[in-house]
Specification:
The complex is a heterodimer.
Chain A (H helix, E strand, L loop, with lengths): L4 H6 L3 E3 L8 E7 L2 H16 L10 E9 L2 H18 L2 E15 L2 E14 L13 E2 L5 E5 L2 E9 L1
Chain B lengths: L12 E4 L2 E4 L11 E4 L2 H6 L2 H10 L9 E11 L1 E10 L5 E2 L11 E5 L5 H4 L3 H11 L14 H10 L1 H6 L5 H5 L17 H7 L12 E6 L8 H6 L7 E7 L2 H23 L11 E2 L3 H36 L10 E6 L1 E10 L2 E10 L2 E2 L18 E4 L7 E5 L10 E2 L9 H7 L2 H10 L3 E4 L2 H6 L8 H11 L3 E13 L1
Parallel strand pairs in B: 3-4, 18-19
Antiparallel strand pairs in B: 1-2, 2-3, 4-5, 5-13, 6-10, 7-9, 7-11, 8-9, 8-19, 12-13, 14-17, 15-16, 16-19
Helix pairs in contact in B: 4-11, 5-11, 8-10, 10-11
């Protein structure tokens, strides 16, 4: 991952890390804010499954809410939900409007995500699908805050 | 970020030409040595993470004798692909979803026919087109069996038996499926509604990635054990059908759900410390361990039902194309094997018998003659083992051997990737690869050209070397190599 401030400001988003896995797909995502990082990771996930996501339109909208005890688990559960919707409702998303809030549940922190997802039902006649993501693994899964924002490493099982 | 790039390649003690051992002193917490089954060439080609991961497996509570890695081993997460570990259920042994994989009961099925290459060649385009339509492949495909949630919950308890009861197959198919195509004691209450929602429209679908359906050719020179091949209904110039798929979104969700549950209780409740979160574990004899075992069995059953339904569709297509009943075409199933599962088995350990929970991830059970797991039809021969190679190089049918006891009767499952998917896409173009393969006599229809490029033969290890290693190490014996002539790629 690029640590230079210049690089991280210019190249916010994601990149695949082919050196990390031969059988599956690994990507790093980043963002100036936690929300931006979640968005980058979601786009990386979509682009793992479809060859040209630019042809996706905002035909379907879904609102989701997720709660977790930490930011890392929140990210994992968010990506899990996108994988779930791909199979359960055949949906693939192109845009992600995300709001994350932190509150307290007793003595423990609680993170809540509210997201509006926009995209389409998968149509194999029009969409050039690449590979099915089976699951978001925990293998070296990582989310951390650096001086330039947030970074995550994700390996998905395909 | 994330990866430790300073992993030291361990010292390997040579046990035989095909077995290499890593001593427990290599890593803190290793309870047993790790053993890699590989020729020198395969060993040298294995990436460093395989050794890191198999030695992590060696730290799991209750592990007995060795953590094994099969000749097609490559890095995965938690366990490497090709990882095998048996835990003593009476000695705190754990069960780990990471030792089974997300695609629970990903496996292989092989069907014989009475047809020869001469019969099939003139019809090959029609066959491939119709198979491609009848057996949906790729992301976002739905099967022809439409089920509501409560019927789907019945399927995951009954497996292939449900299919036979509903007209998708022949009763004989059950006898030649591992476990008779049904895991007993699969309680549907141990799987989530989410898992059901993900899987209920996917029965009869291949999925994507390295999943495929192939029409294959038995060349006379590739029959290694002529007598056994004949007994199993294999003859020179014959056409057979092989396919590879698993429990689809249902199994993936079961694994995801229980990994998350195990991560929450593992340390706090059971004081289990692990080196990789994908090794999340719970004692086999704990409520969480037992619930996962049941959920895993539901996914096993979904996968058996999936492959059973696909078999039914394959028979329909052949019957339609040749205007002859599938029975008259001799389309009997040879066997169906899982290569991602855990099972409770009795094995001899230091002279006594122990009940072990054997994890096989990207590894195939290879029971020898006389073992109770072997179907009655094969009890004198040992079980058939189906190994899927890359779509360009071919696959194998093997048989279990008595000498397989050394690895809890386990052998390889495929050829094992050596090249990343991104790299394969940089080197190959799906449409060009398709044309090139056609020139070499292998027709391909794919749901995804990019996905096709990812599965180029050169992205995999040499299947012949993998099989030779398994044969020479005594963990399975060669029966016949099968080469593809047409492939539906997921």
């Amino acid at each position: 991952m690029q640590d230079s401030a210049v690089m991280t400001v210019i190249i916010m988003g994601y990149r695949y890390r082919e050196d990390l896995t031969a059988a599956d797909v690994a990507f790093e995502a980043d963002g100036r804010t936690l929300e931006e990082l979640f968005e980058s990771a979601a786009i990386a996930l979509t682009n793992t499954m479809i060859e040209d996501s630019s042809i996706l339109a905002d035909k379907v909208e879904r609102k989701i809410t997720i709660h977790a005890a930490g930011e890392e688990r929140l990210l994992h559960d968010f990506l899990d939900e996108l994988v779930f919707l791909k199979d359960a409702e055949m949906l693939i998303f192109r845009s992600f409007s995300i709001k994350i809030t932190k509150s307290k549940s007793g003595d423990s922190p609680k993170f809540s995500l509210e997201a509006t997802l926009k995209g389409e039902e998968i149509d194999t006649a029009r969409h050039r699908m690449v590979v099915d993501v089976k699951a978001v693994s925990w293998h070296h899964f990582e989310l951390k805050k650096g001086k330039d924002g947030w970074k995550a490493l994700v390996i998905v099982d395909v | 970020m994330g990866y430790n790039d300073d992993i030291k390649r361990p010292d390997m003690k040579k046990i035989t030409d095909y077995i290499w051992e890593i001593d427990p002193s290599y890593k803190q917490g290793m309870r047993v040595p790790a053993r890699i089954y590989a020729s020198k060439a395969l060993l040298d080609g294995m990436d460093i993470h395989v050794f890191d991961q198999i030695t992590n497996v060696a730290t799991l509570p209750g592990i007995v004798k060795h953590a094994f890695c099969m000749p097609d081993g490559h890095s995965g997460y938690g366990f490497p692909i090709g990882g095998v570990a048996a835990m003593d259920t009476n000695d705190g042994g754990v069960i780990s979803p990471g030792g089974i994989g997300f695609d629970i009961n990903c496996g292989m099925r092989l069907i014989r026919t009475d047809l020869t290459i001469k019969d099939v060649q003139p019809k090959i385009h029609e066959l491939l087109d119709k198979l491609f339509k009848s057996v949906p492949a790729g992301v976002g495909s739905k099967g022809f069996v439409k089920l509501d949630a409560s019927t789907f919950r019945k399927v995951v308890e009954e497996g292939s038996e449900w299919c036979i009861d509903n007209g998708y197959g022949w009763k004989d198919d059950l006898e030649v499926t591992e476990l008779g195509g049904r895991e007993e004691n699969a309680d549907n209450r141990t799987v989530s509604d989410k898992a059901v929602q993900r899987g209920k429209d996917q029965i009869g679908t291949l999925g994507s990635g390295n999943h495929y359906l192939e029409i294959q050719h038995v060349k006379e020179e590739n029959i290694h054990d002529k007598a056994l091949a004949k007994r199993w209904g294999i003859f020179p110039d014959q056409i057979v059908v092989m396919f590879h798929c698993g429990s689809r979104g249902f199994g993936h969700q079961v694994a995801t759900d229980y990994l998350n549950i195990f991560l929450e209780v593992m340390e706090s409740k059971y004081k289990i410390k692990i080196l990789d979160r994908e090794l999340a574990s719970a004692p086999f004899n704990s409520p969480e361990g037992q619930n996962y075992f049941s959920g895993m069995k539901c996914a096993m059953n979904m996968s058996f039902a999936n492959r059973q339904t696909i078999l039914h569709r394959v028979r329909e297509v052949f019957s339609d194309v040749f205007k002859t009943d599938a029975e008259k075409l001799g389309m009997k199933q040879i066997y169906d094997v899982a290569h991602n599962r855990a099972s409770l088995e009795k094995h001899q350990v230091d002279g006594g018998w122990k009940e072990l929970i054997v994890h096989r991830k990207g590894a195939t059970a290879a029971f020898g003659p006389g073992r109770p797991e072997v179907s009655a039809r094969y009890k004198d021969d040992g079980q058939p083992i189906i190994i899927g190679g890359s779509m360009e190089t071919g696959s194998y049918l093997l048989v279990g051997a008595e000498t397989g006891a050394q690895t809890w009767f386990t052998t390889a499952h495929g050829s094992g990737r050596t090249m990343s998917r991104t790299r394969a896409k940089q080197l190959y173009r799906g449409d060009e690869l398709q044309k090139d393969m056609e020139k070499r006599g292998i027709l391909v229809k794919t749901a995804s050209y990019a996905g096709l490029a990812e599965e180029a033969g050169a992205a995999y290890k040499d299947i012949d070397e993998v099989i030779e290693t398994a044969h020479n190490a005594g963990i399975s014996r060669k029966v016949v190599k099968l080469v593809p002539i047409a492939n539906v790629k997921g």
